[in-house]
Amino acid sequence: MPIFEYICNECAHRFEALVYGKDKAECPKCHSKNLEPQLSVFAVSAKSGTTTATSSGACGSCGDPRGPGACPLGDLD
Q: What are the pLDDT digits (tens) for 11-68?
């Protein structure tokens, strides 16, 4: 079951939603289905005591596990 992140275009509420099959997400605050999907960032963990490029965390722009500055998408601003 994928978790998606959204911003409601009606009330600007940011939230995550589990979406099953062809179901559509709904804002939990105002119940609107007029939503803007967001680029999700996933967490990366490393075993304790090891130092790797991924231990600094994923890129905040695209989720690239190599960390900030490794984004293959370029500047998203």
A: 999 999 888 888 889 999 999 999 999 876 665 555 555 444 444 455 655 666 666 6
DSSP string, 8-71: ETTT--EEEEE--TT-----TTT----EEEE---------TT---GGGG---TTT--TT-TT--
Q: Domain map of the chain by residue range?
A: 1-38, 41-77
Q: Which residue has the tokens 């190599």?
A: 66
